[in-house]
Write a structure and sequence with these properties.
Pfam families: PSD1. The protein has helices at 2-5, 12-26, 47-59, 64-72, 75-78, 85-90, 107-117, 134-138, 146-152, 169-173, 192-200, 202-218, 222-234, 240-250, 257-269, 271-274; strands spanning 103-104, 275-276. By secondary structure, the chain is an all-alpha fold.
């Protein structure tokens, strides 16, 4: 079976693999039905490109890094996500790749970004994610604290242990993959429940408070604190309108810890925080 799958005369596996890598980098696959390459699936938007990437991937010995480098150095990957009315009228679904897809960050990246803003992210690789997690493994039920301990870890979400039958509420609300199912492409939803979780989650409250304390500790001037909040949350500097709204929000309470906590928490819950332009 392994020989048949990797046989150069059988390019199907390489096509499927390359298409999934393209989907993760570009937002949509060349074949949008990533789990279905059969007659019931969609036709590829660029079949020659898919064949070229698959053939090159095979010749390169199934090496993933060169494939990623090949895609991210293209003009298509580096294009802006800004809309153009003429192009949008001709190709509203962006199948011709005239712009980058504006897409939401995956659940893992959103959680990690909050930890970075709070200066609490542990970047150490976890080679044994289940080590020291005996309670989580052996006593995973509604009466244990195992679930809370799982999300409260400061490691990257990638290294968090996966417990079948349970996905933390924060990750579940942001469309994390169900460990009980095979998920080739995650759904991307925008529902009121996400806002409720982002506002009320105890973990997010803790991270936003830590981020607010760090911002106030590192900067004395109000304007610099606003700059840092926008830089760490939105990866940009605030506009003049942003500064006016922030000034109105604080209303003379620029040194109030609770105000800064609420300000950062609101930024964590903002749509811009979750989108990749």
């Amino acid at each position: 079976m392994a020989d048949w799958l990797t046989d150069p005369d059988n390019p199907l596996v390489a096509r499927v693999f390359v298409n999934r890598v393209w989907m993760h980098l570009m937002g949509e696959g060349i074949v949008r039905t990533v789990d279905n390459f059969g007659v019931q699936g969609e036709r590829p938007s660029h079949p020659e490109l898919l064949d070229f990437l698959a053939s090159d991937f095979l010749r390169g010995g199934w090496q993933l890094k060169p494939l990623i480098r090949q895609i991210v150095t293209t003009q298509a990957y580096q294009r802006s996500s800004a809309l153009n009315s003429i192009s949008n009228e001709i190709d509203p679904e962006n199948r011709l790749l005239w712009r980058m897809h504006r897409r939401r960050l995956p659940a893992e990246a959103i959680r990690d970004t909050m930890l970075v803003a709070a200066n609490q992210l542990d970047r150490t690789p976890r080679f044994e994610p289940m080590k020291g997690m005996g309670v989580l493994v052996s006593n995973n039920n509604s009466n244990s604290n195992a679930k809370i301990e799982s999300l409260s870890q400061s490691c990257r979400t990638l290294y968090m242990p996966v417990v079948r039958g349970y996905v933390p509420a924060l990750l579940s609300a942001l469309d994390a993959a169900d460990p009980d199912l095979l998920v080739g492409k995650r759904p991307t939803t925008n529902v009121p429940g996400q806002a409720l979780v982002l506002i009320n989650s105890p973990e997010i409250q803790q991270w936003s408070e830590a981020a607010a304390q760090r911002i106030c500790r590192d900067h004395d001037k109000f304007s610099l604190r606003i700059d840092e909040a926008y830089r760490c949350c939105f990866q940009r500097m605030p506009t003049a309108e942003d500064r006016e709204l922030a000034t109105a929000f604080f209303a003379g309470q620029e040194n109030s810890t609770s105000r800064w906590h609420a300000f950062v928490a609101a930024m964590f819950a903002a749509t811009e925080f979750r989108l990749l332009d």
